[in-house]
Amino acid sequence: MAETAPPVTMDTIVSLCRRRGFVFPSSEIYGGLGSTYDYGHYGVLTKNNIRSLWFRAMVQERDDIVALDSAIILNPSVWEASGHVAGFTDPLVDCRTCKLRFRADQLEQASCGRKPSKRPGETPDCDLTEPRQFNLMFETHVGALQDESSAAYLRPETAQGIFINFKNVAQLARRKPPFGIAQVGKSFRNEITPGNFLFRVREFEQMEMEFFVPPADAPQWFEYWLGQRLDWHRNLGLRESNLRVRAHDEAERSHYSTATSDIEYLYPIGWQELEGVANRGEFDLTQHTQHSGTKLEWIDPDGNRYTPYVIEPAVSIERIFVALLCDAYHEEVVGDRERVVLRLHPQVAPVKAAILPLVPRDEGMASRARSLYEELRRYHVVEHDESGQIGRRYRRQDEIGTPWAFTVDEQTLEDETVTVRDRDSLAQERLPLSGVRAWLDDALARDWSSPSSD
Ligand code: GAP
Predict the structure, then answer these.
(1) Residue 428 vs residues 85, 275, 359, 407, 423: alpha-carbon distances, Å
(2) Which of 21, 57, 241, 284 shows the smallest number of beta carbons within 10 Å?
(3) Does the CB atom of residue 206 touch ligand 1 within 6 A?
């Protein structure tokens, strides 16, 4: 097998997602709505897998973290207390010449609309306005009246729903620090410059965990969670050479943070934040205590009171989704044929196995393939495909990352065995039909690392 293409571009990933129905531009028949996307069948399955792998690592396999699902629209005072109303802003500038809008703090990386493209402000023709602060929260109204008293916001992060429930959860879940609360759900930001496919969108699904610890232990828990989260991304199969950790300096840190490090991925657009890990200190619990009048503190058995510090790993499914597809995408020549293959971790792959009768017209093969499919689909997402040449059917599965194909052929009719074909090595072996389910269960439970070289 030989690689045929240079490193993947974002356009290649966008086109694969569209062609195979992972992701489409949203509201397309009405001309779309800037940087919003809808997920098709394989996209939904992949997202579900990412979400459940995160949940498994962060909640199911631990004793010290519980789950929460808080509302998207919260009392607006939450966002006053959190600092989002006053400070969740980006500085924006407009160019009166090219009529485009830019983030004032990212002009170096931006390019203006003219050809050949220039950096905004680079030429004498550029006519930039003074920077203005622009709040990224989407506003809405609760109830029938649309005045100031009914104004509310779509949450820009899931974290605040966790902080305001600290007391409820600490009491009801019978946990004491160190313990965490995990939440997955949609967040909304009116980004000034969304783009690069799903990398920066206005509506995205965050997976956040707030870990409450005694203040003196916060630095060591910060390092612990940074390590855990980096390992999680590695275990998902992201290549080591495409991952790095970058610590924020003081100027870059958010208002609430005393330490932040980003886990960065080498996207086609360069090194960018995949996940952030922050030490939020006591900022949030203190702010909500002051604004709500409810004490959000911990009282230990000796009667000592303290406000726990918070360590927060926060990531979106979208950023993981793009990183996984970029890492997995390969074009190569097998024999004299080209194929596109997604070398996804089998646990992430949308479809776990394809069941293919070699000659669909053959009643014996067709019925065995169908009953194998009906057995396997009770436990895993699998596909039954009987249309077209076998080579084309394999390639269709390679392109969506299906790790294994079970082919029912002439020999099956004689000895009740099937061929299993491996997506990455293309190796084939024979298995008894009756053992396929156990084989697939085992194969899916194995550790996996990308066979692609670093
Ligand atoms: N609660 C902390 C917080 O929200 P953040 O760095 O603003 O921190 C956390 O966001 C994570 O959410 C990021 O690391 C990224 O994975 C994801 N994220 C943020 N904005 C996003 C956007 N516009 N589109 C997609 N994902 C985004």
Answers:
(1) 59, 38, 18, 10, 10
(2) 241
(3) yes
